[in-house]
TrEMBL record:
Residues 332-341 have a biased composition (Basic and acidic residues). It comes from the Eukaryota. Pfam families: Ribosomal_L1 (PF00687). Gene3D superfamilies: 3.30.190.20, 3.40.50.790. This is Electron transfer flavoprotein alpha-subunit.
Amino acid sequence: MPPKKEVVAAAQGDAHIDPDQTLKASKALLSHIKKASKQKSETSEKKNILDEIEDDGSLTLAETPVWMTLTTKRHIVDTNRLKPAKIPLPHPLHTNTHESICLITADPQRAYKDIVASEEFPAELRSRITRVIGYTKLRAKFRQYEAQRQLYASHDIFLGDDRIVNRLPKALGKTFYKTTAKRPIPVVLRQSRPKAKAKGKRAPKRKGEEEEEVNAASPKEIAAEIQKAIGSALVALSPSTNTAIKVGYASWNPEQIAENVQVIAAALVEKHVPKKWSNVKSIYIKGSETTALPIWQTDELWLDEKDVIADSEAPQPIEQAEKANVGKKRKALDAGKEMTRKGPLSKKQKLPESNDDTLLKQIAETKSKLRKQKEKAKKALDD
């Protein structure tokens, strides 16, 4: 095995995305999406009456998403995480005031309905929250599959109290959790209390607070938490080496896409990727029907030297067993097997020593190919 290259590993840990490269890729991607949309609207014979046409003749790009894909060398997590993580963005994704919100709360339901209907709650946000439902009512009313489908189709965004969000997969089923489009976003609706210093004692309650009083935050705090949740990028982690996150829409400016990509990539790697940048293989941006444009690629294909298997350590193919002769009798075959079993066992042959020079040569060739591919992709973006 070749010796570890500590210099290269240290460089990978300090790697960051080039903002100029991100902006250049964003401009190229948005230009391609707009051009392809215009060609599609001109060539399509049957036009959908619901499609809106822009001034330049292309279809509306307001609902065409732009994705950032991050590829790692090893899996980020071992199991599917149904509770999405949130990354605050400089340019929020859900800015459309016509998108309806369904708020799923802990019991009792009436307390949170009163908070949303109060005068302290922002009127603009209140108009978007079209339904407030408690967990008990949710399980009783939307137990059937058809009722869950109607609930799924009647709202654009679903928010779930973080105290009961882990119980929602069982209550809502595959209607909501088959895809990541409308999974409930966790929000903190409870009131934060100071921790008790003495062990075994509860935190002090406010004057006049009863034992059964609802543990809910103020209307301003709940409104701020909801605004933060709908303005964040959602990260659905799964046991895979590829993670896709929505960073914007094709109708945005390239600068807005680039700024969101920079923030999401840095937060995703620092908070959710084990071993940080040394485990990141590549970062791309793409549209729904486009090829991925590279933003950042690593020179090392593996995370650790242990991941590389030398030729001498590679598992040898199992020799195929000799096919039995159909013309012979079964007794003769069984007798032959017994004879081979009773014979002396052959000693294990020693494996040949590894050739480090050959392995180093293969590694150098692989690195040179990667550099040529990156230079070719960079020239294509410049053109």
